[in-house]
């Protein structure tokens, strides 16, 4: 199956570069481009892409609001936020808006293509840098009462490792289980908590104190 991608960035050269990089993969096809948030929303409705690569900083409607509107109209679409730095102060708002991942524009070609495939398959991207931003967001925030009681002890353990930035393979190694079992635990936790994806699972873990903000990446 070919993954349909929409590029949203106000810089034509950036869009051309990403189009060229993605065009080298037989499983990916760029179906359209947008130079503003407003145009990204219109193009997403018209072209029905599987994944949108969304610049976070655009004139007029920014990538955060565009992400909200795209997902409100097409919940099945996945959005990867693009920025110049992984310390962008808007990263938390972008994830809250429903973005499934966050990449810097200096991303390696193979990593970019892999990122699109990952989110198209229903998974999410959280780099250590992005995880740190989520931690910082909750460093001085009062925590609500625990709302993870629906999870089993093992699911809580898996969610904690996800929130620390661990991959499925790393979680499997830490708990001496298979990567498939780790993925199953994550999927069940997401379903039980009524969440969209792995990103929201991480945010929920920090919101409810499952992971301490003092632990940067669990490493």
Automatic annotation (TrEMBL):
All residue ranges annotated as the HTH luxR-type domain in the record: 144-209
The entry's keywords: DNA-binding, Phosphoprotein, Transcription, Transcription regulation
InterPro entries: CheY-like_superfamily (IPR011006), NreC/VraR/RcsB-like_REC (IPR058245), Sig_transdc_resp-reg_C-effctor (IPR016032), Sig_transdc_resp-reg_receiver (IPR001789), Tscrpt_reg_LuxR_C (IPR000792), WalR-like (IPR039420)
Domain Response regulatory: 4-120
Protein name, per record: DNA-binding response regulator, LuxR family
Alphabetical list of Pfam families matching this protein: GerE, Response_reg
Stored Gene3D superfamilies: 3.40.50.2300
PTM sites of type 4-aspartylphosphate: 55
GO biological process entries: phosphorelay signal transduction system; regulation of DNA-templated transcription
Record's keyword annotation contains Transcription regulation: yes
Species of the source: Streptomyces venezuelae (strain ATCC 10712 / CBS 650.69 / DSM 40230 / JCM 4526 / NBRC 13096 / PD 04745)
Domain of life, per lineage: Bacteria
A molecular function (GO) term: DNA binding
């Amino acid at each position: 199956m070919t993954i349909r991608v929409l590029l949203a960035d106000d810089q034509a050269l950036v869009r051309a570069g990403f189009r060229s990089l993605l065009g080298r993969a037989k499983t990916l096809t760029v179906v359209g481009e947008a130079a503003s948030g407003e145009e990204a929303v219109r193009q997403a409705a018209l072209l029905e892409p599987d994944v949108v690569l969304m610049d976070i900083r655009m004139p007029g409607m920014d990538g955060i609001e565009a992400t909200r509107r795209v997902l409100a109209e097409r919940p099945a679409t996945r959005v990867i936020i693009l920025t110049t730095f992984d310390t962008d102060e808007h990263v938390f708002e972008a994830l809250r808006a429903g973005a499934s991942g966050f990449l810097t524009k200096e991303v390696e070609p193979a990593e970019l293509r892999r990122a699109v495939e990952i989110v198209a398959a229903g998974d999410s991207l959280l780099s250590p840098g992005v995880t740190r931003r989520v931690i910082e967001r909750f460093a001085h925030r009062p925590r609500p009462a625990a709302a993870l009681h629906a999870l089993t002890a093992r699911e809580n353990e898996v969610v904690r490792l996800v929130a620390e930035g661990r991959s499925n393979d790393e979680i499997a190694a830490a708990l001496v289980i298979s990567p498939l079992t780790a993925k199953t635990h994550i999927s069940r936790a997401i379903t039980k908590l009524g969440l969209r994806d792995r990103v929201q699972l991480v945010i929920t873990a920090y919101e409810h104190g499952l992971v301490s903000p003092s632990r940067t990446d669990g490493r």
